[in-house]
Amino acid sequence: MTLRHVSNFIHPELQFASAMASAGIPCGEPITADGTLHRFRTGDDHSENCWYVLHFNGVPAGAFGCWKRGITETWCAVTRESMSDAEYQQVRERIANTRVQRERAEAQRQAEARTRAAELWVNAKPVVTHE
Description:
By secondary structure, this protein is an alpha+beta fold. The chain has one domain. It is built from two helices and four strands. The protein has a four-stranded antiparallel beta sheet with strand order 1-2-3-4, sandwiched between helices. β3 and β4 form a beta hairpin. It is elongated.
């Protein structure tokens, strides 16, 4: 089986979206397979707690999750048995890179939140109680 061209796969975006929905985080917008981190809201979320990354170079593969729900999953359009060792290694490297990208983005958001919290703390006025 040759896995080197995306046209060998039928609707990987739909398969990916189905995997996300099965994990409990349906995405209400079209899936974009551009290899970058996409954040979105699902259900009654007030923030973009959910995320995904989908690649189409070689074997369609990606990762998705939800920080609020503690979900992190990987996805691939094919099984390990149908890939060559080189193709499998490419997918694993892509997944590792995606994880690093996600962790960097999360660290950036946390740093921004720390900065904002420090600003609020410094600028806060004392609580006045009336007894």
